[in-house]
Specification:
Number of strands: 0
Number of domains: 1
Largest sheet: none
Strand content: under 5%
Helix content: over 70%
Radius of gyration: 18 Å
Amino acid sequence: MHLLAAAAAVGAGLAAGTINTVVGSGTLITFPTFLALGYPPLVANVSNTIGLVPGSLSGVHAYRKELGGSDQRRRAVHLGCFSLLGAVAGAVLLLALPGTAFKRVVPFLILMACALVVLQPRVSRWLRRRRSEGAGGEGAGRAEHLSPVLLAVVFATGVYGGYFGAAQGVILISFLGIFISDNLQRLNALKNVLALLANLVAGVVFAFSGHVSWSLAAVMAVGAVVGGQVGGRVGRRLPQPVLRATVVVVGTAVAAYMLA
C-alpha cells in the first residue's frame, strides 16, 4: 500500500471511528474511500468490518462509565447474544449471496429508524403507560423485561451489521430508546457494545474468507482506535436533544447518499 492510500485509509478510519461511537454509519465514509482506492467491493466491505473492530472497542472503552450497573450488564449479555447470532448470519449471507436487493431496502430502513428516533420519547411514554396499566401498578422493583420485539430487532440489525452495517447504530439506538427506559447516553453506550459484537463476530467469519486486505484493515484500524476515543469525548458531552438531532441528521444524510 503506497503512502497516499495509507493516509486516506487512516483518515477514513479516524472519521468512521468517531462517527460510529457518537451515532453510527461510519461505513459510509470508509467503504466509498476503499472503492476509490481501487479495492473490489467485497474486499472493501470485509476489510472495513475487520478494521472497525478496534475502533468499536475503543468507543466502548470511552463509554465505560455509562456501561456501569447490573441492568446494563444484563442488557449487554442478553441483547449481545442476539447481535452475535445475527452477525454470523449476515456475514454468511454476504459471502454467499448478491447484495443488490438488500441494498435497495437499506435506505428505507435507515429513514424509518430516523423517524423512530424523533418519535421515541412519545412512543416510550406510551409503552411505559401500557406496561404500567397491564401490571396493575405492581411492576416496581421487578427485573426489566426485554421485549421479544426488541430481541428480534437486535437480531435483524446484527444480520445487517454482518452484511454491510452502514447506520447500524442509528437503527439500534432508535429501538433501544423505544423499548428501554433509560438515559440516551447509556443507551448509546449499549449500542456501541452491540455494534462491537456484530463487527467482531462478522470479522472472525471474514478472516477465513480469503477476501481480506490485511494491510488495509490494519492501517484503517489505527485511525479507528483514535476516532473511538474522540467520539467518546464528543458524544458523552452532547445533551440528549443534541444527540437525538445528530442521529437524525446523520441517518437522513446516509439514506439520501444511498438513494442517490
